[in-house]
Amino acid sequence: MISVADALAAVLKLGSPVDVELVPLIDADGRVLAQDVAATRDQPPFSASAMDGYAISTVDVAAGDTFTVIGEAAAGHRFDGKIDDGQAVRIFTGAPLPVGAQRVIIQEDVTRAGSSITLRENIDKGHHIRPSGGDFKVGDLLTAPRRLGPSDVALLASMNVALVPVRRRPVVAIIATGDELVSPGETPRDDQIIASNSLGLAAMFRRAGAQTRLLPIAKDTASSLEMDLSLAEGADLLVTIGGASVGDRDIVAEVAGTMGLERDFYKVAMRPGKPLMAGRIGKMAMIGLPGNPVSSMVCGELFIRPLLDHFLGLPAGPRARISLPLAQPLDANSQREHYMRANIEDGAVRAFDRQDSSLLTVLAQANALIVRPPNDPARAAGERTEVIAL
Amino acid sequence: MISVADALAAVLKLGSPVDVELVPLIDADGRVLAQDVAATRDQPPFSASAMDGYAISTVDVAAGDTFTVIGEAAAGHRFDGKIDDGQAVRIFTGAPLPVGAQRVIIQEDVTRAGSSITLRENIDKGHHIRPSGGDFKVGDLLTAPRRLGPSDVALLASMNVALVPVRRRPVVAIIATGDELVSPGETPRDDQIIASNSLGLAAMFRRAGAQTRLLPIAKDTASSLEMDLSLAEGADLLVTIGGASVGDRDIVAEVAGTMGLERDFYKVAMRPGKPLMAGRIGKMAMIGLPGNPVSSMVCGELFIRPLLDHFLGLPAGPRARISLPLAQPLDANSQREHYMRANIEDGAVRAFDRQDSSLLTVLAQANALIVRPPNDPARAAGERTEVIAL
Q: Domain coordinates of chain A in residue numbers?
């Protein structure tokens, strides 16, 4: 058995960042930027008015000053002349600043009569000019790696980056194993259950940026597993669920072994999830998750999400932890690291009473995991503990 | 001008929950459950072993007790006989408990010789039985409304719910308006800029559960806007960007007016985003966002995301706020509510120095908005302020 930290370090060595592909900007949200991209123009590309009002050629003005309006500038419609002393150009937000303009007087601060404006008392002191390149300049970079969000998409559009270099989605093949399993929608025998982990994990992996390949449920026979394993070929990562202790044999490891598995570890000192296996078949990383639903989902959070970050070229390491006070006391922990299903509420964290690794109802209600180190003593309510938000 | 709270209340009256559709469970992640769904079976469907070990028919045992192994039970493979006194069945995690079994002795606590096992000293006191229905029972509900996540998908699978009733994705048509705009990838003239808001907003709305229909950029002419507005027909929500003050006219409102717009409000006492318009054209909700990139994205967060929650049948209201100390002082606020771009770091929040509503570089770096009430006085570092996490 190895520690959780050692197991994660070994898992992260199983893969390396995948290839780069260009995607249209409209499809870039959620993808991971793979290379720095540079603005192809200044933004704004010209000095522009920040308000609706009147552009004038001087900065120092007084109440009662009058100006003759000689034209108009709107967004997309530049005023072609030049503003001299005593002149003004009617201007709208976003319009290019006319030649000679030094300041924009907001429209609420003038009285207009025909083509003449007169400044009122106590006018706004701002100049209301957005300087050329004030947001960014040609060559300014959005730096990789970065998981792109809606604001990044808007920024890239504004930089006129229409095709975005991102990591392709790593392909994760998923195999649930077990004679007791049937797919949702089928009619199970009395001694069978529904395969739940594969769909839940597929959703988790897709959210993390992967493409998933859900393979048929494998029976606990060599031939069934061999067929499924062959269908996984070409994936970046193969995730098997269950089968680590079927009867007295670890049939997944046996069959994967005949297909070239180099096994890195097969047990981790943690709850839930002790029977976690990791290795490589050729170029493909392989992780064997425990069959208990909660164990497999928790191990997905702790090990596979960081590995997917690594495939995507992002900084990859242990899930971020926050420190929160306990809402109620906890018993002493065993010698294995324990990831307790919990809820964060009103700034404190509360573990669920029932921590059995088969309880999906509990996991679905949880929004956090409390991390208990090995042999952590009993803790009182109010003591701070480390928490991973889900 | 109306307050932000009044504006949001009016926006939420523009729509109502959309229809329900059935989706395969594999596509249910991120969708909003529309109706309670009931488990079609108990989970586990039988009392099961929680460990690998030996099932016996008694609870009270002592070191040195011996049992004869009469068979085996594995997941998916029930033992068909009955266990009597002095007998044991080899059993594996998840296997149905044989008739007569009262307790499972974990395998580390026995010595096996042929078909006989002998209990060791100081054995584990647990019974290691997962009772039938211990996770959930037939008829137990997953209650709507609920935005489904990976653990919910696993739970629904386990409940054998293969088709899930969810709200269909509300359709949002998006029209950017302005003679100054060209699409990303085109070559703008000197006085033009790239349309950035429509793609950023589309990404935001898709994340919130919508389906987006990006319409062509509309010129500031009645005919161009009329064409685009006609293309929006059938959408649940039409979002226009810009055009609220083109020259001296509000051309979007004018053209929408000829198409039957019942306008609810057109100005909100906030920064950024004062020129925000809302109303309805027939059955379609319409929101006119300001053209400044940051204004449109912030208004999307504050008004359109709650409206999409409402379309999806979720509880809808103001974005959740948290209270955090300021990392640095803030000047007094004006009479308009101010949503300042900011970063949460190390438990404190820091506003960006530059708050102009044209700066996408600042928005892309921000992970939060500081909410300043109207006329909020100057604040010192360390004072707590309300924050919306982005």
A: 4-17+168-311, 21-43+139-166, 48-130, 322-389
A204–chain B Cβ distance below 8 A for any pair:
yes
Q: Which fold has domain A4-17+168-311?
A: Molybdenum Cofactor Biosythetic Enzyme; Chain A (3.40.980)
Q: What is the mean pLDDT of residues B165-183?
A: 95
Report the residue of chain A nearest B49, measured CA to CA.
A358
Q: Architecture of B322-389 per CATH?
A: Beta Barrel (2.40)
Question: Which pLDDT tens digit goes with each residue over A262-273?
Answer: 999 888 999 997
Residues of B in contact with A25 (CB under 8 A): 184, 199
pLDDT of residue A244: 58
Residue of B nearest to A367 (CA): B151
> Given this model, what pLDDT does residue A76 score?
83
Q: Do B45 and A188 touch (CB under 8 A)?
A: yes
**Interface confidence: ipTM more than 0.85:** yes
> Which residue among A94, A158, A360 sits closest to B360, beta carbon to beta carbon?
A158
List pLDDT tens digits, range A147-185: 999 999 999 999 999 999 999 999 999 999 998 899 999
Over residues A65-94, the pLDDT tens digits come to 999 999 999 888 899 999 999 999 999 988
Instruction: Please state the three-class secondary structure of chain A as a single string.
Output: CECHHHHHHHHHCCCCCCCEEEEEHHHCCCCEECCCEECCCCECCCCEECCCEEEECCCCCCCCCEEEEEEEEECCECCCCECCCCEEEEECCCCECCECCCEEEEHHHEEEECCEEEECCCCCCCCCEECCCCCECCCCEECCCEECCHHHHHHHHHCCCCEEEEECCCEEEEEEECCCEECCCCCCCCCCEECCHHHHHHHHHHHCCCEEEECCCECCCHHHHHHHHHHCCCCCEEEEECCCCECCECHHHHHHHHCCEEEEECCECEECCCCCEEEEECCEEEEEECCCHHHHHHHHHHHHHHHHHHHCCCCCCCCCCEEEEECCCECCCCCCEEEEEEEEECCEEEECCCCCCCCHHHHHHCCEEEEECCCCCCECCCCEEEEEEC
Measured between CA atoms, the residue of chain A closest to residue B75 is A180
Give contacts of B93 with chain A, Cβ < 8 Å.
Answer: 245, 291-292
Q: What is the mean pLDDT of residues B39-47?
A: 92
Give the nearest partner residue to A151 out of B150, B206, B297, using CB atoms. Answer: B297
Answer yes or no: do A193 and B220 touch at CB < 8 A. Answer: no
Q: How many CB pairs under 8 A join A and B?
A: 262
Give B 302-341 residues with CB within 8 A of chain A.
none
CB contact under 8 A, A46 and B96: no
* Closest CA of chain A from B330, distance in Å: 19
> Looking at the domain A21-43+139-166, which fold is it?
Molybdopterin biosynthesis moea protein, domain 2 (3.90.105)
What pLDDT is recorded for position A273?
78
